[in-house]
Amino acid sequence: IEIDVVMRNADDLVAFECKWKNAKIDRKVIVGLEAKAKHLGTTNIGCFSKSGYTEDFLDVITFEVTDLYYL
Known about the structure:
Radius of gyration: 12 Å
Helix content: 10-25%
Shape: globular
Number of helices: 2
């Protein structure tokens, strides 16, 4: 499996997907990341997106390019 970024958060892990494309992240990407994160024993996931998201994803940590300037 390939996971772009893994971060330790308190006592758990967060798996992140990074997409630098001109297309928005959709439900298919989120479902795929959830499946990959299970291999790490976590349900915590997040995404970094150049172009945003097709919908608001509850329980997903989301970042866009402009957010990276404030981290």
